[in-house]
Write a structure and sequence with these properties.
9 helices, mainly alpha, 196 residues
Length: 196
């Protein structure tokens, strides 16, 4: 029986992420991945049982890495303003340092794999953010709204800015680079919308 090689496995994961982003789920195949990774298809099956297994495992790993990053220096007991700003900082850092993973995550969570991947990777983070949300409402630092509205208002503007950043251009096609003033101005508007 052939053994796992952690270096090859990491190469396979990185090539899989790049291929998923480039070709989409429908254009992705184990044969193409093996060729891009300079390994045999049989070697792939040491690491993954099939295409579905590979996609799920990669999605869960990206999700866990993302949510671990979101929890850095964050506590559910923080003030609403401080905690939300920390979430913004963490999300910006992850998006800027791992743009390919973010693109892959978006692709996978909006696919038929999305529900499974989210369920498997969000477990601990849901508890942390649920506590932060409840604490903020109880302390009257956040208006009582549904979690869906909260998420849309709290993070929607940030993710729009990050898309402009990723694309490198604004609505008019001119250059765009995210900076602290843009982040802070947008954050203040979000705070006004969400606080009593």
């Amino acid at each position: 029986m052939r053994t796992r090689d952690s270096n090859k496995e990491e190469i396979v994961k990185q090539k899989a992420i790049a291929l998923l982003v480039e070709k989409g789920i429908e254009g992705f195949s184990m044969n193409r991945l093996a060729k891009e990774s300079s390994i045999s298809v049989a070697t792939l099956y040491i690491y993954y049982s099939d295409k579905d297994d590979l996609i799920k495992k990669i999605g869960i790993e990206i999700g866990k890495n993302f949510f671990d990053e979101m929890a850095k220096d964050f506590s559910p007991s923080m003030s609403f303003k401080e905690g939300l700003y920390k979430q913004w900082e963490n999300r910006i850092r992850f998006a800027q340092s791992k743009p390919l993973e973010v693109s892959c995550w978006e692709l996978l969570t909006h696919s038929s794999y999305g529900e499974y991947i989210l369920e498997e990777s969000l477990l601990d983070f849901k508890i942390i953010m649920g506590s932060f949300f409840r604490n903020s409402v109880e302390k009257k630092e956040l208006i009582p709204i549904s979690k869906e509205i909260f998420w849309s208002v709290a993070y929607g503007p940030l993710y729009s800015l990050l898309r402009f950043e990723r694309d490198g251009k604004n609505f008019g096609g001119g250059p765009f680079k995210l900076n602290k003033k843009t982040i802070d101005d947008t954050f203040e508007l979000v705070l006004k919308a969400l606080t009593p």
